[in-house]
Amino acid sequence: MSDTAPDRRAGSGRADHRRKEPPVAGPLPESLELVLGDQIYIAKDALSPALRNRLVRLAAFQNPEFYKAQAMRLPTYDKPRVSASVRRLVRDGVDAPLANLFVHAARHVPPDAEGVNRARSASEAFLYRRLETLPGTAGRFRLNVELPIPFDGWGRMEVDLLCAEARVAVELDGAQHLADPDAYRRDRRKDLLLQENGYFVLRFLAEDVGTHLDDVLDAILRTLSHRQRRQS
Hints:
232 residues; alpha+beta; four-stranded mixed sheet; two-stranded antiparallel sheet; 8 strands; elongated
């Protein structure tokens, strides 16, 4: 039996085989005290150096943009190894279900891989739950809403997330939309129809919900604030 297991490094489309880490040797504490603040804090006095190092490695959520640039021999000076999205997630507060959704939304999936649609749905589910937990957006968005706007031969149009009161529609696109001319044209027709009916459209790549969460949330919050000022 092999002592290696396949592992997909964040930000790369290939699997590598790395040796399984051995159990941490030495006496282990019966319990640990954790404090959740802007980061997760663990009292390290009772930890052995080996256990301390293992916890640090487990806690590091790698930034896929760093490893993508590294693999392509591009500069990495402006790309931190640890994703800024994780810092934003912790800063705004996170529970176990939301963390699980984030992991699925942030994972790198090649555009032609099986399960791309599931990954996109995970991005929608994560963003919706994140918005439901923030004071400025809680209760304001609905997921997968149908609007009475004829589109592509149907009498209705579905949008990924909708804030009806501010008339803001949020669309999350898989990366394949950029490579498919027909999908691109369809999205532009959809945006135009929404704008003609008084909606402001925010369109993001689905993968950016995991890798650029700061930008996505800030854009949504700015748009809601701007729309609210215009309506008042």
